[in-house]
Amino acid sequence: MVIISHNGALALQAYSTAPLTLEMKRTVQHGFYNGTYARFGDPQATVTIHDRPDFHARSHYDIRNILDSEGMEDTFVIIDEKTPELDAIWLVNPTSYSRDQEEDEQPGDIIHHPGETYTLWHGHIRTADVPTLAVIWSEGCGDLTEALYIADYHPYDPRDPQDRLIDLTIDWANPEVSGSEWGPAYLTATSGSEVEWSTDIDLRQEFWPEAPAVARLTAEAARESGLRQYWSYQERIIPPGGSVSLTAPYDTESPIWPTGFPDDYPSGPAMAGGARFRPAKRPSQDELLLLSTTQQRAQENVLQGKCNRVELQKAENK
Questions:
Q1: Do the Cβ atoms of 15 and 47 come closer than 8 Å?
Q2: Residue 125, CB half-sphere, CA atoms under 13 Å: how many?
């Protein structure tokens, strides 16, 4: 049986500076649904939306300080009245991040305002880009300061409305982007009945270093799993009946995966709703170890691919 692994998601909290409307809520949910691969049941990030009346009409600086006092010191999201119109939300960094920027500050880098004990760093970002940027920044691939500098916010003024959005200009609604290039499935399958092998030199040389062998799902196994056939690097050929760890792009045209947005929006963590999870047998301990080891390697490669894609996009936007 093909077993698709579901990865842990980065959990973000979102707060509204105005009474939350259905339009505001759906703008965030739709953006996250497209930007997190939720259609395929494996979102890279989730967002929980809070409508706290005590945050209405408050500055981002005030909300950051209130949350810090409550013990919530992580990065969070701000939704405001302009979110539906601009399809954009704010990503607010931890206070520790903001203070670190001041330690490295050079003359003319930051505009300070009276009454603020530190300068808050936050970015106005196209909604669907927030999940990917939050994930790769949390992994040390770039940061908000760099993105704001590239967007020509220099010197940095925390009170700037940032009408020039941080925008990766990626069409997340395009299934070829969300299903193939950015969202491979990590899986284990059975050699022989579900996996086919090749030692063709041309296929092996597509990898660096050269692969000793390559493997992919059979056409039938791929179709039944909602995936496409894709050759994966293998250290050795596994005998029939053994478990093989692979990656494969999602088949965006497969009827397994839902199209459009979910009809029912959960009140808890958004964006896992609406994606179908296929039942699967419980993996054996050997399968779990194999999946974990190869998945970690594959995730590192995918993360680096995301970093490279974002770096390229930033260079094109300069």
A1: no
A2: 29
Contact 129, 147 (CB under 8 A): no
- DSSP string covering 299-315, please? HHHHHHHHHHHHHHHHH
Count of residues in the chain: 318
Q: Model pTM?
A: 0.78
Three-point CA angle 74, 80, 85, nearest 5°: 130
- Provide the pLDDT confidence category of residue 42 given band limits of 50, 70 and 90: confident
How far is 160 from 96, CA to CA, in rounded Å?
21
Question: In the numeric block, which tokens belong to residue 42?
Answer: 């494996």
DSSP characters for 151-173? TT--SB-TT----S-B-----TT
Strands 185-190 and 243-248: antiparallel
Strands (E), the chain: 3-4, 10-16, 45-50, 76-79, 88-92, 122-126, 185-190, 195-198, 213-217, 232-234, 243-248
One-letter amino acid of 281: K
- pLDDT the model gives residue 235: 95
> Integer distance in angstroms from the first to the last C-alpha of the chain?
47
Closest alpha carbon to 162 in 134, 115, 125: 125
Q: Is the pLDDT of residue 301 over 90?
A: no
CA gap 31, 34 in Å, rounded:
5
pLDDT tens, 203-240? 999 999 999 999 999 999 999 999 999 999 999 999 99
Helices 130-138, 22-35: crossing angle, 10 deg rounding = 60
